[in-house]
Amino acid sequence: MSIMPMDYGRPSRPLYSSLLRNWGLTLLVFGLFYFVYSGTAWVWFRPVVHKPLINKYAAEYRFDPLWVMAIIKVESGFAPWAHSHRGALGLMQLLPSTARELAPEIGLNPFHDQDLTNPEINIHLGVYYLSKLQSLFPNDDIAVLAAWNAGPGVTQQWLRGKPALDFEDILYAETRHFVRQVDRTYGWLKIIQGWKHLFGIAHGRG
């Protein structure tokens, strides 16, 4: 009596294709769920009325507009009237005291605290401030974001002469969370931008 050897090779093509299909569908559903849950879908697929201003000042100060957009998304969710418990105002959540120092440097005189609810003034001041922080921490986006949230003085202490700041170097939990949120949002926005180019969606339509 002969016993046929069992075949432990690759699964049959129909089964193999079915597994791939189901796995791909699972990943797609999970990705879409996270995409919507994270709030990034809201940013891109609704009309972003401030996008021209973001592009304008990002270009002037040589930033990736998607990076500026990620900061605004995390700071205010694109609400010009947003305000924090610390008194920060507007799209980029600038403190009035900081804005009062920056305003004369960009020729904004006179300046009133409520001007921070004006999207153009807020974005201009915010991106200009980012450029000043970048000059303090060149080629170190993590340090720039940490300084934006916690202040340049404490960020310099965290660096301790290191060439660049790591997430683990950020000792304030709130600041570390903020930097990670911006980093994740920026990553999603770059992916969406790639999808838009891939599928030929017209630039600037949302």
From TrEMBL:
Segments passing through the bilayer: 20-45
One Gene Ontology cellular component annotation held by this UniProt entry: membrane
Signal sequence interval, chain numbering: none
Keyword Methyltransferase attached: no
Plastid as UniProt keyword: no
Keywords from the UniProt entry: Membrane, Transmembrane, Transmembrane helix
Classification via InterPro entries: Lysozyme-like_dom_sf, Transglyc_AS, Transglycosylase_SLT_dom_1
One annotated GO biological process: peptidoglycan metabolic process
GO molecular function, one term: peptidoglycan lytic transglycosylase activity
Matching Pfam families: SLT
Residue ranges constituting the Transglycosylase SLT domain according to the UniProt record: 53-168
UniProt family annotation: Belongs to the transglycosylase Slt family.
PANTHER family linked to this entry: MEMBRANE-BOUND LYTIC MUREIN TRANSGLYCOSYLASE C (PTHR37423:SF2), SOLUBLE LYTIC MUREIN TRANSGLYCOSYLASE-RELATED (PTHR37423)
Protein name in UniProt: Soluble lytic murein transglycosylase
